[in-house]
Design brief:
The protein is of the alpha+beta class. The protein has 2 domains: 88 residues, Phosphorylase Kinase, domain 1 (2-Layer Sandwich); 202 residues, Transferase(Phosphotransferase), domain 1, CATH 1.10.510. Helix content is 40%, strand content 19%. It has 9 helices and 11 strands. The protein has a 6-stranded antiparallel β-sheet with strand order 1-2-3-4-6-5, with helices on one face. Strands 7-9-10 form a 3-stranded antiparallel β-sheet. The protein has a two-stranded antiparallel sheet with strand order 8-11. Helix 4 packs across helix 7. It is globular. The structure holds adenosine-5'-triphosphate. The site of adenosine-5'-triphosphate has 21 residues, from strand 2, strand 4 and strand 6. One of its GO terms (molecular function) is protein serine/threonine kinase activity. InterPro entries: Kinase-like_dom_sf, Plant_MAPKKK, Prot_kinase_dom, Protein_kinase_ATP_BS. This is Serine/threonine protein kinase.
Length: 308
């Protein structure tokens, strides 16, 4: 999805906050979507992400969620939101913007492509933990999809774009069809824990079988779509098959909350057939560990020899 508004900030241009006076120097575009454009900006020595939008109502609701999360003092949300202001463009038009923590990393799909699919179980577990934290603050993420999950070193996960975040119990504010429980006739669009877990399961499928998922959604009549069709993809995918029971549970609302889902996922990771954290240790780290062990052994040998 792309924005319809015309803001195009070049490298080096400066965004001045009209009310609070902060100045941000633009480095580059990080991404764009339906609600605005996100730029990497610098303020003093600090790197931040600045989201500028055309519609202050859309942006305001994201800001409300971020404020409420910061208020709940959840570790992940601490200091995520920095500043909220308006900016007057050279042509006189005013745009609302906010600045937030710059999440270094790439979308989960790009990360797995670059560093290997063996990172998937760990990144997914971290994502489930993020969802559990968000749920504990009374919010449902709503628009969970590949583009909104950023992954950085060692599978560390951060959610971006809180435009779909909805207070638990309300109607989900923003969603993407293919990840939407209602689209697959598996439940309402009411914001509950299971709604996010359904999207999470679709995200797992999207990461492994994007083409098949796309074709499936195109080929079925709306009234015929179901979790069973999604499970058809899972059962024909070698990487997803070990997760079959877990994914079925997530697609059919079988987990009470994201914490329970994360625990079940963690247990799966520890089973033999599925790679777990130590087996996704990068090569250079394995090498470092081996060298350290040898050095330790040599030191001990010399120590003992000199003592005798
Ligand atoms: N804090 C951040 N740090 C780094 N990159 C970010 C950050 N926030 C957003 N991005 C990048 O910018 C892209 C667009 O941002 P965002 O999803 O918030 O826009 P949107 O208009 O709400 O999109 P959508 O149409 O999906 O709702 C993201 O997919 C991500 O790549």
């Amino acid at each position: 999805m792309t924005t319809s508004f015309k803001v195009d900030l070049r490298r080096g241009s400066v965004v001045n906050g009209k009310w609070r006076g902060a100045k941000y120097r633009v480095e580059r575009l990080l991404g764009e979507g339906a609600n605005g454009k996100v730029y990497l900006v610098q303020r003093g020595a600090e790197w931040l992400a600045l989201k500028v939008g055309a519609d202050s109502i859309d942006l305001q609701s994201e800001i409300n969620v971020l404020r409420s999360l910061a208020g709940a003092k959840k570790r992940s949300a601490e200091a995520f939101l920095y500043d909220v202001d308006d900016w007057r463009a050279p042509d006189g038009t005013e745009y609302p913007f906010y600045t937030m923590k710059y999440v270094r990393g790439t979308t989960v799909a790009a990360y797995l492509q670059r560093f290997g699919r063996e990172w998937f179980p760990l990144a997914a577990l971290n994502l489930l933990k993020k969802l559990a934290e968000l749920h504990a603050s009374g919010w449902i993420f709503g628009d969970l999809k590949v583009e909104n999950v950023m992954v950085s070193d060692y599978g560390y996960v951060e959610l971006v774009d809180f435009g779909g975040a909805t207070a638990a119990g309300k109607s989900v504010r923003q969603f993407t069809e293919i990840y939407d429980r209602g689209y697959w006739n598996e439940g309402s669009r009411s914001a509950d824990y299971q709604y996010d877990l359904f999207s999470f399961a679709v995200l797992c499928i999207q990461l492994h079988e994007p083409k098949r998922l796309h074709e499936l959604s195109r080929s079925l009549l709306p009234q015929n779509r179901s979790a069973e069709d999604l499970m058809g993809i899972v059962d024909h995918c070698a990487a997803l098959k070990p997760l079959s029971a877990w994914l079925r549970r997530a697609l059919t609302g079988g987990f009470r909350h994201a914490g329970e889902a994360a625990e079940a996922w963690r247990q799966l990771m520890h089973r033999k057939r599925y790679p777990h954290r130590s087996s996704v240790m990068p090569g250079w780290l394995k090498g470092l560990a081996a060298v350290s062990s040898v050095l330790l052994a040599v030191s001990l040998y010399w120590l003992l020899r000199n003592m005798m």
